[in-house]
Design goal:
Number of domains: 1
Shape: elongated
Strand content: under 5%
Mean pLDDT: 95
Number of strands: 0
Helix content: over 70%
Radius of gyration: 22 Å
Structural class: mainly alpha
Largest sheet: none
């Protein structure tokens, strides 16, 4: 029984290690895409904001925009 448990643990650890490597590769690819955007004149910070906004549900995005506009107006930023 102990060998089976040890084998299963080892397999799980190896799987996590492979996934961590894949994650690092994907992170590198994402960084390269932002660098490419910067190279052609886009602002990576704004690109990141757009990606974050596109992940949001449209209703949540509208609500956030309305609250942000309210705060900006209250602080005289517009």
């Amino acid at each position: 029984m102990a060998e089976t448990t040890d084998d299963r643990l080892r397999l799980l650890i190896e799987r996590v290690e492979r996934l961590e490597e894949e994650k690092k590769g994907i992170s590198d690819d994402i960084r390269d895409a932002y660098s490419e955007g910067k190279g052609v004149g886009y602002d990576p910070k704004i690109m990141r904001q757009i990606v974050r906004l596109r992940k949001m549900h449209p209703d949540d995005r509208r609500e956030m925009d309305a609250i942000l506009e309210t705060y900006r107006a209250a602080l005289g930023l517009d």
